[in-house]
Structures are given as structure tokens and as C-alpha cells.
Design goal:
This protein has 807 residues and is α+β, with helices and mostly antiparallel strands. Helix content is 51%, strand content 16%. An 8-stranded mixed beta sheet has the order 15-14-13-12-11-10-23-24, with helices on one face. Helix 24 links the parallel strand 20 and strand 21. The chain is globular and about 90 Å long. About 3% of the residues have low confidence.
Length: 807
């Protein structure tokens, strides 16, 4: 069996840790140069020890052999330490230099003052559609970029170019990777853990310049592929550019979610598999024309560079390209490469060039997947071959090894375990290379032979459609994923469980090879690994399911009103008999789904979308297929279409309501108190719901401002209430007279913890206190449930401190 060379794996891990420390020094209160000083100190100490060992003379002849062995082992250990410390020092020194120069004076001053400034940019990737807030009418593009100069006239940013994340108007669509733009924009500073030092919102593009020739040739190819694939139709047409060159701009949100559920998103993120196809193909073609080894390597490197330029240098592409370069150079010099040394050298080199790769999820997933394939695919294939035909075992082992190696990182990104990830990847495995090769061939042929290029894309469409169908099918399967504890503890437990499983697999293979039981120490290791694997499986699943079970046991069974904790936004559930109404949906679909699960609600009879601000309707897509009727205020074009269209498409009926509309919710009656007919969309056109039940009365004010509140009072019809949903998260724009008239016992305030708006304001809290209304704030209480029985109101809160004002 082939033995792996692990000597550079330790230095690569140390370099990664140093990069994390250096780029996160601001978080832990250390200066950015502290990691560099620590690394250089360790390197110097290791060098001193190495020199002392070298000077030490061996003893008498009888002990010379043992001394040489000891000295050799110690020397190798010190040498490994020296390499690791040098790699860490190199990485941390790069980070220190970049951090010291990433805030040019003019750019930092503009960010502090939120002022516009002239900036000269070089785009580091092709612009892609940006996700904008629902109230933003104009489409926008987003791209990473490098600031070359700032000010008027432009002045260089210094010895280190500053990187920014740019959001710009759609008029920049003609620009591509490497293009130069002169823009007027407003910067805002990020923290040192981000690769981009600033976010730049571009108001106007003053001028643009072409990319250098070695990059400009890619622009018409990308545009032609996007145009041609748009005519293919369906999910397959949207996936073809992603499978070919990693362009996912046409992938819809629902298809992206389905691909994530099925663990198939890596197929549209250009990775090592794509680079391997390109380099292997170029190597093979060069061999056909009779080139020698060096010539074939040069051709492969040229093809790889062109491919990286075409797909733009994302983290996975850069990692895979660097690893391929190491392997090709080793091949050219007739030296043995090996997957582990190549990956280690690639990681160290890339972190030395850009330490922020250590915090890039794509880079981490790419490196982990490669390590899993190199280290585990063969042992897993051999183990599985004991229960299935060997060819099938090898095919199953490849996605399984990659999935296991990536799972701790995936848990950090989303704390779930995909149930059908490996089967989905097995079924997609034959289709992905065909779609990639055919799509890439079509992209290259479109400018010269358009009809042949379109035919190649049509070939790619067939496997791409198969992959999309797989993703859609997995999404509809029962229990597509299992919950797992979030954050670093969850990732650590996952890594420990995988390591324990690896120990058991290795021990089983050794026992099989020897044909006899292992010694007692080995049996102890095996038992310990088995226990660790059981604990790492049972405990996290219990911890993940435990909070939901505890919440179900602890929540009041007969609640009447439930205020969701959705951050800076509104979402309140109302239950009357067996019927349930939701007033607003908060800003985030996941937060709303958590609230529905916590409250024990599966389906809604009525949903009220008071107005179209994102903090009230951003989570509405979670209600698709869960709600029968949607009531809303005046429509507002694209702003209202975004949240409303998915609900209607899933079968919900909707109606635009005005003052005077009324209906029933189980035993309760609801009436719309605002807006007037012909109202202009906005906060002051919020739908105000006046709900009357046999036990209580509640009024929900949306984001109504003071003038609109006073106008609504003048129309009459609002009497005393038991509960009021305070308008606009407790902003200062309130009518104290309205709250005095309502004379409610409880005021619900949906507000995010540490929001930048100062909500709720002291003036509003004082007005509630004056009216005798106890404020229940979601930022302090978390979720809150009210159970109302005649004169008595029982309050349950997720957290202890959430009520202010009168009791």
C-alpha cells in the first residue's frame, strides 16, 4: 500500500493557524504584528537548538549508533519545527504588512464621515447580480475589487493595494475581470477578519478602462455563454454556466437552496475536479502531438492559467491551480509529487500570498475535500469492497471521503447533516464531468463556431437538468437533513467523531490483513474510538433536538398571542380557537420558521403583511405553502411582488385591504382600521388590525407614524385595548395620545438586540409607561407568549428580562 508523506502537513496546519491569528488579532485585542513576532521567536529558538545539536560530538564507539539515531530523530523534529515556524512567520508577516497599509488616509476619512470619494478600481472578478433590499428598485452588481488610487486627483493607496467589496449600478455589466473603473462612491470600513478592508457603494461610474489583453479575451466568452445558456430554459439552462465556468448568476434562490440541501453546490463552484480535467486534457493533447515531458507541462500550465482567468480566481480555483502547479513542476523535474505534499505546499504558498484565505469557507472546503480524497478514498474503498463489488465501492468511497472531510466546516456554515448528500453525489457523479466538458467546449466555440457551440451547450443541458432534478427531488424527500449543534463546539464534536471512525476503519483493515486479533493496547484504542464515535453521534443529536423538546415542554399550551424573536423586525402570531393569524413576517425566513416551530404552528389561516419594508416581509417566503389567505396594503411594484409572488404561486389567496374590511378568525373578529383607500405605499399606509375576541382586544399598528396615528384616531372606532403592537419598533415617531386612548396593559415591541436605530426610544417607553402599558421587548425577552383569560394576562418569555414599564 502506498504510504503518504506527511512531513509538510504539520507546517501547513501551523501556517493556517498563524493566518487565523494574524487576521483576527483585532478580535482578541492583540496588535497585528504579535503573530509575526511569536512565529519568528519560535523559528529563532528552533534554529538555535538545531545548531547546538549539530555541534554536539558523538560519544564512545559503543554508544555512537544510538546517539546518531537519537540525534537524527531530534534533528528531524527540530527541522520540522523550524519549517512550521518559518511558514507561520512568513504568513503572519504578510498579514501584518497588509493590515498596516489597508487604511489609506483619504479612504479612512471618507468612511468615518460617510462621504463620497473618487476611487480608481480594478475588478478582481466578473460582476454578478447583488442581492438588494426589497425597497431598492434598481438592480445592482457586486464584485471584489482592488483600489489603485483615491481622491481627486487620484493618488496611489501606497505600497499595498487596498481590497474592497463593491456594489455598483447595473450599467457596469459590460465590465469584466481585470477592468479598471473610475467611480464615485461611499466607503464603509470592515474589520480586519475580512479580506476586503472596505465596502464601497458606488453612486456613479465616471469612466472605465479595458482589462489587460491576457484577461480581456475572457469577457466575450463569458457574455456569449450567459446569452446562449439563457435560451436553453429550465433549471438545466441556469446550471450550465455554473458547471462550465462557475457562473451562478442565473441560478434562482430556490434552486440554490435545493442544491444546498442535496450537497450539490460544489458542482457549480469551480474546484479541483475542473482544474484536473483541464490540465489532464491539455497534457494528453500535448502528448498526442509529440511534445516531451517539459513541453507537456508547459502546455498544461498554460491551459490551467487560461482556465483560471476564464472562471476568475475564486478560492477553490486558486487552491486547485496552485496544487496542480506543484504537481506539474514535480513532474517536470522528475521528482515524486504526492497529494499530501502538493496540497501542503499549495496551502502554505497561498496563505503566504493572501493570509485571508484562512478565513475563506470555499478555500477551506476545497482543501478539506482534496485531503479527504487523497487520504481516505482508498481505505474507504477497500473497506466497502468487503460488502459490495469493488468498482462500486471505489465509486461510493470518493464522495463519501470528500463529504466526511468537509463536514466539520459545513457544520460551521450550517449546523445540519445532509441525509441524502452521498447518494445524490453518486447519482450526479456521471453527469457532472459531461456537463463541465461540454459546457466549457461550448463556451470556447461560441465566438468562432456559434452553431457548434450552441450544440455543445445543448449536450451540457441534459446532464445539468439531471442534476437539477436530483436537487429538487432530494429537497422534497422526508427528513432531508438532521440538526447538529452549531458553532465551533459542533464542528469539534463532528471532527472527533470522524477521527474515531477513521481509527476504527484503520483498525478493522489491519485486523483483516493480519488475520489475528490485535494486542491489548490496540483493542483498548478500538474500544475508546467506538465509545467516542457513539458519544459524538448521540450527544450532539440529543443536544440539537433537546432545545426544541425543552421549548415545547416549557411553552404555555394555551397561548393567545405569540411575539416572535426575529431580530429587528415584526412577527406576531394570534390564535383564536383552532385558527391562527400572523401579523408580519420579520426580516429572515429562517428566523420565522424557528418561531413557527417554537410556537408549535404548522399552518396559518391568515397572514397580514402590513407594508413592504424588509423587516416586515423579508421572511414571507417561509410561508409559501403554509398560509391560505394573505391580507396586505397598497401594492408597490417589485417591492411587493418579491414577498407576495411565492405565496400566491404556492396557492395562497391575497387581497389588498383598506379601512372597513372585516372578517373572522375562529371565534374572534378582525377589522381593518387603516389605511384609507388610495393610500401611497409606505410606513403611513401600514395595515392596522383591530382584533376583538371574547377575552381581549388587540391592536397591531405596523410602522404607522405619529401623523398617521393621529389621523386614524380622528376617524374614530378605536377604543380601549388589552394589547397593542407598538408602531415602528418603538421609534420616536409616535402619538402619545393614541397610547393613552388605547390604555393597553401590554405593549409588544419587535426590536433587534443592539440595533443601530436606538429602538425603542426613551420617549416611546415613557409614553407607554404614562399610559400604564408594560413594554415587552423581543431584544430582551426573546420570544414572548400571552395567555389572556378575562381580566388576567399571563406572560411567558424565553428570557427573564424583557418587560419594562407598568406591571
Amino acid at each position: 500500500m502506498r504510504r503518504h508523506d506527511f512531513r509538510l502537513l504539520g507546517p501547513a496546519a501551523v501556517a493556517w493557524a498563524a493566518a487565523l491569528l494574524a487576521t483576527g488579532s483585532e478580535e482578541i485585542g492583540l496588535p497585528p504584528w504579535s503573530a509575526a513576532v511569536a512565529a519568528w521567536t519560535i523559528a529563532s529558538a528552533a534554529l538555535v537548538v538545531l545548531l547546538r545539536i549539530g555541534r554536539r560530538a558523538p560519544g564512545d564507539g559503543g554508544a555512537r549508533i544510538g546517539t546518531r539515531r537519537t540525534t537524527g530523530a531530534l534533528g528531524r523534529a527540530v527541522a520540522a519545527t523550524l519549517v512550521a515556524a518559518a511558514a507561520a512567520a512568513l504568513v503572519s508577516t504578510t498579514a501584518t504588512i497588509v493590515i498596516a497599509h489597508r487604511h489609506p488616509t483619504e479612504l479612512a476619512a471618507a468612511a468615518d464621515q460617510r462621504a463620497s470619494i473618487g476611487v480608481v478600481l480594478r475588478l478582481d472578478a466578473a460582476p454578478r447580480p447583488a442581492r438588494t433590499a426589497p425597497w431598492v428598485q434598481e438592480p445592482a452588481l457586486r464584485a471584489p475589487a482592488t483600489v489603485l488610487a483615491v481622491g481627486d486627483p487620484p493618488r496611489s493607496t501606497g505600497p499595498v493595494s487596498v481590497r474592497v467589496d463593491v456594489t455598483m449600478p447595473a450599467t457596469a455589466a459590460a465590465a469584466g475581470f481585470g477592468s479598471t473603473l473610475v467611480v464615485l462612491g461611499t466607503p464603509s470600513e470592515t474589520d480586519d477578519t475580512r479580506r476586503a478592508a472596505y465596502r464601497l457603494d458606488v453612486a456613479r461610474i465616471l469612466s472605465s478602462g479595458p482589462a489587460p489583453p491576457y484577461l480581456a479575451w475572457t469577457h466575450p466568452l463569458r457574455r456569449a455563454l450567459a446569452t446562449a445558456s439563457s435560451g436553453l430554459g429550465g433549471d438545466g439552462g441556469a446550471l450550465v454556466p455554473g458547471l462550465a465556468i462557475g457562473d451562478t448568476s442565473r441560478v434562482s434562490d430556490d434552486l440554490r437552496a435545493a442544491m444546498t440541501t442535496a450537497s450539490l453546490t460544489h458542482l457549480t463552484a469551480v474546484s479541483g475536479a475542473n482544474c484536473a480535467l483541464v490540465t489532464a486534457g491539455a497534457f494528453w493533447v500535448a502528448g498526442l502531438v509529440g511534445l516531451g515531458r517539459a513541453g507537456r507541462v508547459v502546455v498544461a500550465l498554460t491551459a490551467l492559467g487560461g482556465f483560471a482567468a476564464l472562471v476568475t480566481p475564486e478560492a477553490s480555483v486558486v487552491r486547485a491551480s496552485a496544487m496542480a502547479i506543484v504537481v506539474l513542476v514535480a513532474c517536470a523535474t522528475a521528482r515524486g509529487g504526492g497529494g499530501v505534499p502538493a496540497l501542503s505546499v499549495a496551502v502554505i504558498g497561498l496563505l503566504a500570498l493572501d493570509p485571508w484565505y484562512a478565513r475563506d469557507a470555499g478555500f477551506a472546503l476545497s482543501a478539506c475535500a482534496t485531503a479527504g480524497l487523497v487520504l481516505w478514498s482508498a481505505p474507504l474503498g477497500a473497506l466497502l469492497a468487503r460488502w459490495m463489488p469493488r468498482p462500486l465501492a471505489v465509486v461510493v468511497a470518493i464522495p463519501l471521503a470528500a463529504q466526511l472531510a468537509c463536514q466539520p466546516v459545513l457544520v460551521l456554515l450550517e449546523p445540519v447533516i445532509p441525509v441524502y448528500g452521498v447518494p445524490a453525489n453518486l447519482l450526479a457523479a456521471p453527469a457532472a464531468p459531461i456537463a463541465t466538458v461540454a459546457g466549457l467546449a461550448g463556451c470556447l466555440l461560441l465566438p468562432v463556431l456559434p452553431s457548434v457551440g450552441v450544440a455543445a451547450l445543448q449536450v451540457a443541458w441534459v446532464p445539468a437538468t439531471w442534476i437539477a432534478l436530483l436537487a429538487r427531488a432530494v429537497e422534497r424527500m422526508p427528513v432531508p437533513s438532521l440538526a447538529w449543534p452549531p458553532g465551533a463546539p459542533g464542528a469539534a464534536v463532528m471532527a472527533l467523531g470522524i477521527a474515531a471512525g477513521a481509527v476504527l476503519v484503520g483498525d478493522a483493515r489491519r485486523v483483516s490483513a493480519l488475520g489475528r486479533p490485535r494486542p491489548r493496547a490496540a483493542r483498548l484504542v478500538r474500544v475508546s474510538a467506538a465509545i467516542a464515535l457513539c458519544l459524538c453521534t448521540a450527544v450532539p443529536l440529543g443536544a440539537a433536538a433537546g432545545p426544541a423538546a425543552i421549548a415545547a415542554a416549557g411553552r404555555p399550551a394555551g397561548w393567545d398571542l405569540w411575539q416572535c424573536d426575529v431580530g429587528q423586525g415584526d412577527a406576531v402570531l394570534v390564535r383564536s380557537g383552532e385558527a391562527v393569524m400572523l401579523v408580519d413576517a420579520g426580516p429572515d425566513p429562517d428566523a420565522l420558521l424557528r418561531c413557527l416551530r417554537q410556537a408549535g404552528v404548522d399552518r396559518l389561516d391568515v397572514a397580514v403583511l402590513t407594508h413592504w419594508d424588509a423587516d416586515h416581509v423579508g421572511g414571507a417566503t417561509a410561508l409559501a405553502g403554509r398560509v391560505d389567505v394573505v391580507l396586505h396594503g397598497p401594492l408597490d411594484g417589485a417591492r411587493s411582488d418579491r414577498p407576495l409572488a411565492p405565496l400566491v404561486a404556492a396557492g395562497a389567496r391575497h387581497a389588498e385591504v383598506v379601512a372597513g374590511w372585516h372578517g373572522r378568525l375562529g371565534p374572534a373578529r378582525w377589522r381593518i382600521a387603516w389605511p384609507r383607500e388610495g393610500a401611497v405605499p409606505g410606513n403611513d399606509a401600514s395595515v392596522v388590525v383591530d382584533l376583538t375576541t371574547p377575552e381581549y382586544r388587540a391592536v397591531f399598528l405596523g410602522d404607522l407614524g405619529r401623523e398617521a396615528q393621529d389621523a386614524m384616531m380622528r376617524t374614530g372606532g378605536l377604543a380601549e385595548a388589552d394589547v397593542v403592537k407598538v408602531a415602528h419598533h418603538g421609534s420616536a415617531d409616535q402619538s402619545a395620545s393614541l397610547y393613552r386612548r388605547l390604555d393597553a396593559s401590554v405593549g409588544l415591541i419587535g426590536v433587534g438586540d443592539g440595533n443601530g436605530y436606538g429602538h425603542p426610544t426613551s420617549a416611546t417607553l415613557d409614553a407607554l409607561d404614562e399610559a400604564g402599558t408594560a413594554a415587552v421587548r423581543s431584544d430582551r425577552a426573546g420570544a414572548a407568549a400571552l395567555t389572556i383569560d378575562g381580566e388576567r394576562i399571563a406572560l411567558w418569555t424565553e428570557r427573564a428580562s424583557g418587560v419594562a414599564g407598568a406591571q
